[in-house]
Amino acid sequence: MERKSLIGTHHVSSLTANAKENYRFYTEVLGMRLVKKTVNQDDTSVYHLFYADERGNPGTDLTFFEIPHAGKTYYGNNAITLTSLRVPNDQALNFWQERFEQFQVKFEPITEVNKRKTLKFWDFEGQRLMLISDEHNQGVAGGKAWDKSPVPVEYAIYGLGPVTLTVPKKETTAAVLKEVLGFKLVGEIAPFVEGQANIQVFETGEGGTGAEIYLEERTDLPRERPGRGSVHHVAFRVENQEELEKWANFISGVRLPNSGTVERYYFRSLYFREPNGILFELATDGPGFEGDESFETLGENLALPPYFEDKRKEIEAKLVPLNTKQ
């Protein structure tokens, strides 16, 4: 059966050691909306927090697993090393520079990456992030900024941009992107580090900011040791469950070890690692986050998929209370 192209980036999931401070930074400083406060479904003793646009539209979610005793990340290879967040235009970056100064956020000067204005910065745990302007974007649409955010809508983060994969041997990862996931190599950009190879740009679906991957080859780095502030995986958008089943059959057919389809309640998923060890997920666009909470109260209470409800008391007893009432 013919599979449809992947639509773009679905979400990026990272690690934090401090859910309370993580919530403060991503809602009060970055102005994203917490659209779901739930638990890691593979380890219900820790939080899984979803920050996004106004309702967690696909392609807007930056999520965090809380690992309270997570150690320091030792940056390196075989990892997702930069997550970018979309803002509407170039002027927004000037706003963000001033905001980062106000909140004492570490950042670098505005620069240009792939003909788009960008602003690199780090969160309180060293998470590597970059704002990217959509001023000239012609690809997959972004989400819709939340009008109750502390950041004005005209400057707000409203989606995920290109994700950077850093590997010691790009050919094997490039082969998976092209031959398995159907991405197209559309160009190269200057390296982030002087003296290194050009970075390859891949895109899927309609292309544009929300559907790109940057592939960086670095032969000078040790393997990254993940911890707080590191990225766990990147997920790509699949239209629906029927399409996900087609992808599952195809990936198994090319003999890539994978999880098979997994029920996550808010979407369905499939996981596999590419040859350099980076974890990829395919995730359906729906059902979304409003099956167990109203739009108005998203993220305010601990949400559990129905198959965990009978364990709610036991789960809540293991979690440090986190007040997320708006």
UniProtKB/TrEMBL annotation:
Gene3D superfamilies: 2,3-Dihydroxybiphenyl 1,2-Dioxygenase, domain 1 (3.10.180.10). GO terms for molecular function: dioxygenase activity. The keyword Oxidoreductase applies. The keyword rRNA processing does not apply. It comes from the Bacteria. It comes from Alkalihalobacillus alcalophilus ATCC 27647 = CGMCC 1.3604. Coiled coil: none annotated. Signal peptide: none annotated. Keywords: Dioxygenase, Oxidoreductase. This is Glyoxalase.
